[in-house]
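TA notes, week 10

Several of you asked for a full example with nothing omitted. So below is the full record: structure tokens for the whole chain, then the designed sequence directly under it. When grading your own attempts, check the secondary structure regions first.
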């Protein structure tokens, strides 16, 4: 089968190549977000921009780091993925609009907000499409035998 051929397994449905790529994307984006939070709070694995860690309880940097570690970790694991990804997306929208745009420039390349914009839209995509493959929630749902079918008018009628 040709890699670029359009077929039924290419979508983001369970078992498809799209689901596998989406799952890997979710894991990598979530882990990158966690690394940003760890950097801001603990200067690990590298010191944050400016070299100073966030002071406990400081707004917005400390709270952003807590969201990055907590919600980013949930996204990476695939636990409550859609809600956690929406929280991450909102945090990055806030960062861009109320922190980066303050630099009197709307373009991300001008105000240093490229990372915020990319994280915002990446997490929004994950929130809308779902976790893809390798999500802990998916494994738990399968193990408990609960159906993962979405309610549609066709299957709601019985």
């Amino acid at each position: 089968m040709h890699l670029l051929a359009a077929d039924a397994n290419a979508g983001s449905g369970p078992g498809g190549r799209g689901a596998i790529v989406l799952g890997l994307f979710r894991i990598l984006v979530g882990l990158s977000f966690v690394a940003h939070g760890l950097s801001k709070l603990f200067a690990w694995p590298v010191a944050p921009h400016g070299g100073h860690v966030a002071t406990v309880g400081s707004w917005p940097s400390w709270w952003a780091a807590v969201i990055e570690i907590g919600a980013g970790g949930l996204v990476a694991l695939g636990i409550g993925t859609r809600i956690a990804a929406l929280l991450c997306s909102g945090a990055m929208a806030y960062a861009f609009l109320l922190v980066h745009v303050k630099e009197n420039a709307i373009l991300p390349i001008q105000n240093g907000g490229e990372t915020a914009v990319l994280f915002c839209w990446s997490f929004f995509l994950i929130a809308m499409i779902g976790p893809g493959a390798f999500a802990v929630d998916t494994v738990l749902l399968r193990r408990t035998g609960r159906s993962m079918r979405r309610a549609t008018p066709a299957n709601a009628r019985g």
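Residues 1-6 have pLDDT under 50 and may be disordered. Use that as a sanity check on your answer.
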